[in-house]
Amino acid sequence: MRKPLIAGNWKMNGLRAGLDEISGMGRAYTPALRARADLLVCPPATLIHAAAAAAIGTGIAIGAQDCHAASAGAHTGDLAAAMLFDAGASAVILGHSERRTDHRETDAEVRAKAAAVLAEGMTAIICVGETRAQREAGRADAVVGRQLRGSVPAEAPAARLVVAYEPVWAIGTGLTPGLDDIAAMHAGIRRVLGRLLGREAAKAVRILYGGSVKPANAGEILALADVDGALVGGASLRAADFMEIAKAA
Ligand code: PEP
User: Fold this and answer.
1) 3-class DSSP state for residue 131?
2) What is the CA(210)–ligand 1 centre distance, in A?
3) What's the pLDDT tens digit per position in 203-246?
4) Cα–Cα distance measured from residue 203 to residue 206, given in angstroms and rounded to the nearest whole number
5) Cβ atoms 193, 199 nearer than 8 A
6) Closest residue to atom 1 of ligand 1, CA basis
């Protein structure tokens, strides 16, 4: 029912020369694979337009990593959802832990940004996840529940809402939670979404796992119930690794 989504987050990496990787991904994204999994690459904003051009005809969608909540105005250095759409993005990652930390983004800000993205007809990928200290204190469920209640717009259309569970301590560290912990958290996220959006809508929301997904561990993670794809950082920079993960879906 839910087609897996494999999304790549290039973070602050990539110059135009790196767009060859998108061409390489496109060559490996065969019709059979397209039928089984959606592919999205989120390069830095400077590359969105060129990446969208490189992705034409490949079936790969291009996304952004953040946006401003307002549609235009006096916000030097910021980008509105409509601008990202105009450049070729069809989705935006919101509330990544690096933005929550580096820019002190709050749940309310993430929700306002998500509402702006959804109003533009784009897909909102809302990131949630606990820190190591929060998990060790037994507070992971509570933290993620609070982030969901604060970050997901009440009227979000399920088909264009994606939630990414990314334990902060697993991002870029090579560490991952146990498979049971991932499965339990994803089931819990769907229960919370059921309370926020209604049970039927919640069944249609794709919930991605993110945090040190690599070709070697993608298969076992993507096989878990309620894991509907992956948000991939480091391993999305190279076509070969990213496409191995896509094939695992
Ligand atoms: C991320 O930044 O969203 C991420 C999951 O990074 P990595 O795959 O490198 O852990």
Assistant:
1) coil
2) 6
3) 999 999 999 999 999 999 999 999 999 999 999 999 999 999 99
4) 8
5) no
6) 233
CA distance 7 to 154: 24
Let me know the angle formed at the C-alpha of 165 by 236 and 129, rounded to the nearest 5 degrees.
115
Q: Which two tokens stand for residue 203?
A: 């069944």
172 lines ligand 1 (CB under 6 A): yes
In a 13 Å sphere around the CA of 199, the CA atoms on its Cβ side amount to 0
Nearest CA to ligand 1 atom 4: 233
> Domain locations in the chain?
5-248
Report percent pLDDT > 90 for the chain.
100
CATH architecture observed for domain 5-248: Alpha-Beta Barrel (3.20)
9 CB within 6 A, ligand 1 = yes
Neighbours of 87 (CB within 10 A): 18
Q: At what angle do helices 215-222 and 239-248 cross, to 10 degrees?
A: 20
CA gap 60, 37 in Å, rounded: 10
